[in-house]
Specification:
Length: about 60
């Protein structure tokens, strides 16, 4: 399995656990669960892009 696939699986697992914990506290509708999942995935992908750009800039500067 590639590193990217492992990271995607890990992020999916963490998002599912986060939603499960929030579900126990609140009664979430399926729509709210989907929206939270999309927002968390969007934020994590933005962070991933910035980290990738930082690593590329660091390697170029070397």
């Amino acid at each position: 399995m590639e590193l990217k696939e492992k990271m995607c699986d890990l992020s999916e697992f963490l998002i599912d656990k986060f939603i499960e914990c929030c579900e126990k506290v609140n009664n979430w509708t399926p729509l709210k669960k989907t929206l939270v999942r999309l927002v968390v995935q969007l934020i994590s992908s933005i962070i991933g892009v910035f980290l990738g750009l930082l690593i590329m800039a660091y390697l170029r500067a070397k």
